[in-house]
């Protein structure tokens, strides 16, 4: 799938996610890359062969303090290659893109896994 088409999947997914997620995403850039770097995966998961679909990088809102010294801005990474490889059917891919985005936005909001499940994202 071409990047432009994948970007459209992301835009459609963002329109489907619940309002608290939509409000939060206005402040976070989404960076789409082909594949995650193995060094990053090893840093995040402990296994360089592990592949993630997305990653929130930054400090969750619930952990920020007003006196923090210039924290790095939050960013969400989405990796197109693993998503397409693991979800070759269009409908499944669209759903997983939505789940991945909501999951990473949830990390930004400080949501735990139980809260994400309550919203229907596992």
The CATH class name reads Alpha Beta
Q: Name the helicity range.
A: 40-55%
What structural category characterises the helix and strand content?
mainly alpha
The domain count comes to 1
Structure notes:
By secondary structure, the chain is mostly helical. It has one domain: Zincin-like (2-Layer Sandwich), CATH 3.30.2010. The chain is built from 6 helices and 3 strands; from the N terminus they run ααβαββααα. It has helices at residues 3-16, 19-25, 38-45, 80-86, 90-109, 113-118, and strands at 30-33, 54-57, 75-79. A 3-stranded mixed beta sheet has the order 1-3-2. Helix 1 (3-16) crosses helix 5 (90-109). The relative contact order is 0.20. The mean pLDDT is 89.
